[in-house]
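Summary for the steering committee. One of the milestones for this cycle was to obtain a three-dimensional model of the protein with pyridoxal-5'-phosphate bound, which we needed before selecting residues for the alanine scan. The sequence and ligand used are listed below.
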Amino acid sequence: MIYFDNAATSWPKPPEVAEAMMHFLRDVGANPGRSGHRTAVESGRIVYAAREAVCELVNAPDPLRVAFTANVTVALNMALWGLLRPGEHVITSSMEHNSVMRPLRALERKGVQLTVVRCSAEGLLNPADVEGAIRPNTRMIVLNHASNVAGTILPVREAGRIARAHNLFLLVDAAQTAGAYPIDVGADHIDLLAFTGHKSLLGPMGTGGLVVGPRVDVSQMEPLICGGTGSRSEREEQPDFLPDMLESGTPNAVGIAGLEAGIRWVLGRGVDAIRAHEMALAQRAIDGLRAIPGVTVYGPLDAARQTATVSFNIAGMEPSEAGLRLDEEHGILCRVGLHCAPAAHKTLGTFPVGTVRFGMGVFNTADEVDAAVAAVANLAREARR
Amino acid sequence: MSEACSVILVPSTSHAIRAEKVLQRAGIACKMIPVPRHISSDCGVCVRVWRADADAARRALEAAGLEIEGICDA
Ligand SMILES: Cc1ncc(COP(=O)(O)O)c(C=O)c1O
């Protein structure tokens, strides 16, 4: 079996991830931040260690400004609903996942103004187009760091410079990049970094978070969810400090324990080494697939400008059929269709049919890429008959 | 012994863990304990230090930019 669905969620996970979660369940178990006894404090320390690991990975200065959430979708909603008000303007790209696009469309119905800057047919964003869309009432730029459809990397650092120059917030959806591509919230001028734990950070599902930068005054931020935090229990109002303000309800501490182990594994291997490995896989897949008659590959076609996610189609074969046959006849597990990102597919010209997507990860090998390319060549040959 | 101690009150458990790390780095002995009942009705934790170290602790935490709610005798 070849697992090429890492863009949806990574698998396998390093053994340390399951071990950390077993340790938490078997030996710790208590509610972090809710009691003062020894295992509650130990649980709190485990969660805190994960905040530190996130900071180390993205070069953020303050572990207390890392709020854990169930996934990047919740983190994005917290930032968008928390900061945007009716009458304000927000800019995004046409390569976004629905986890950005849907909250923005919902906010639009509440009176927030939205500009979707069009990307090229390769999915590339011209930073000048972002700057050109700025209005006097613009508050925020929201960008996908890399497309989950074609892997295209968006110019976050340039957007950050623009955001800084115009005193806007930059919110980045790092679902596809955290752990797989270098991120430096300082150098990239990222004010709000939303990440998910279960992809390239190699943690379990149900983990993610929001890194809140020093330019964001949290007193201006409306918490999306209010409730118990274990702090200021004498008060009936939501705490106004991070991370508690954004962390109501018992957290997924067992998942966060696994997330910490995943991030530590990534830090041990090194993001640059992971990136180099994945770039080699991506270029091998792009070159191999493009050489097959009848196969169209989407995106920049250049591993230096994308992640290890490669989208393609086979002439004469629906993505759904290709996906089923890759699974059943070749043991290759990938994802087909629209990948929760209709805007991105419209940009790439693959809407509404979608594509076949190979999402490669750190544990995949060149041999697996070759086997998958051979399988696609097989299907393409049959489709031509 | 408890007469010679002070407790540093912080907003949350996460702050207490951060405070502990800052103090350890500054070479100040400390321990995280449940907030004594007579100080606050809150259910959280605080950080106990020797009373003689209380001022140094406050300065170290301020230098680290960590929000504290107060230091009182334990
Ligand atoms: C770019 C992007 N944003 C958001 C998401 C949503 O991630 P999650 O389901 O973990 O919230 C994904 C993945 O599904 C993604 O690829």
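Key point for the committee: Chain B has one domain: 5-73.
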